[in-house]
Amino acid sequence: xxxxxxxxxxxxxxxxxxxxxxxxxxxxxxxxxxxxxxxxxxxxxxxxxxxxxxxxxxxxxxxxxxxxxxxxxxxxxxxxxxxxxxxxxxxxxxxxxxxxxxxxxxxxxxxxxxxxxxxxxxxxxxxxxxxxxxxxxxxxxxxxxxxxxxxxxxxxxxxxxxxxxxxxxxxxxxxxxxxxxxxxxxxxxxxxxxxxxxxxxxxxxxxxxxxxxxxxxxxxxxxxxxxxxxxxxxxxxxxxxxxxxxxxxxxxxxxxxxxxxxxxxxxxxxxxxxxxxxxxxxxxxxxxxxx
Length: 291
Known about the structure:
2 domains; elongated; 7-stranded mixed sheet; 9 helices; 6-stranded mixed sheet
């Protein structure tokens, strides 16, 4: 059985070049050493956007108008040019992968906020180090997307229950639901393809949700866990570490059956796992158990 650290090393193993484009779906286009950014756009304009560019302005403006991100990966700074309003969740996840592939928590992220005929850098932003970069990765407009979830035990005569939860949530959506939950804690399951359901821990146990949502009994083919925010009540009375209050705490209950492996197939859980060695409020406390 592979260790948790082994899985983490795998998910950050991808190496990226210096000159990149990220398309709206989050796919990286690595230009290598052959092209500069806009020369590559000009050569591939018809394939990417249809038709030929009317002029050089179209070459420079069209990618930004369509939601692309220009990326320059330096030794100390990742430089992004994009329309901030059009940066998608998938693109931020890709940028996060690029950031952590550098293995340098002092790395900065500079966002050059594109605007047509730009005359001021007032909207540009600099994020210094991993803690500030994490803030950028998580910043987005919160749209909580509830999903109708159900639970039923597998024995005869069990009662069917419906309740509100989340399907494939991002971190902000989970935080929003957590604040409304009875114990500030969510349960979650992730299947072997990365699909995730999360709900108030007081609404149902893991196995009844899997059975109700899929019609199949749990057979070790899901990650089962809980996620919560650390409070003062969670601290050790003899050695309280007040700096951990407010950090996220993830518990995988069935790591020996492959729970950690399944959890890391989900984009949100993968992003959380990368922060186990972060400092400050961006750190995620992650525990593997086998219950």
